[in-house]
Amino acid sequence: MNHKMNRLFLVMLIVVSVLIAACGHDTKRSALTNKYPAGSVTSEDIAKYLKFDARVADYDDTDAKKLIINVNQSWVASPPGLKERSLNQWYSMWQASKDDTKGLEVEVHHEGTPVAKWTAARGYELVEEKRSEDSSSSS
User: Fold this and answer.
1) Which one of 32, 56, 108, 109 has the fewest CB atoms closer than 10 angstroms to its CB?
2) CA neighbours within 13 Å on the CB side: how many for 64?
3) Number of domains into which the chain is organized
4) CA distances from 17 to 11, 13, 61, 104 (A)
5) Per-residue pLDDT tens for 101-110?
6) How far is it, in rounded angstroms, from Cα 5 to Cα 12?
7) Element spanning 123, H or E
8) Which domain holds residue 23?
9) Could you give the CA distance from residue 90 to residue 88 in angstroms, rounded to a whole number?
C-alpha cells in the first residue's frame, strides 16, 4: 500500500511540475515580433509577400529609399491598429532587405493618394489626418 502511495505522489508531482512549467511563461508579445535581422530578407521575398497580400494592389520599389505600396479598399477600411501593424511589417521587411537603412520610408497609397507612411524617425503616420487638419486650420 505504501508503495502505491509513493507512486501516486510521484505521478502527481510530475503532473503539477509540468503544469507549472507550461503555465509559467511570459504571455507578453515581444517588441521585436515584426523585426527581421538585417540581410535576412531579399527583394524577391518582399515581392512574393506583397504579391500574395490581398490588401496590396501593387507596389513600386524603384526608389532605393522609398517603397510605395498601393492598397485596396480592404486595407483602408481596416481598423487603425491593423493598418499600423501591416505597415510596420512592410517597413520591417523593407528595412531588412537594405544595406543602408538610414532614411528609409514605406508609403501607402490608395487610388493614387498617399494615406499613411512609416519612417524610422517617426514610425506610423496617417497622412489623411494631417491633410484634414491642414484644411480645417486654413478655413
Assistant:
1) 32
2) 5
3) 1
4) 10, 6, 52, 48
5) 788 999 999 9
6) 10
7) strand 123-126
8) 1-139
9) 5
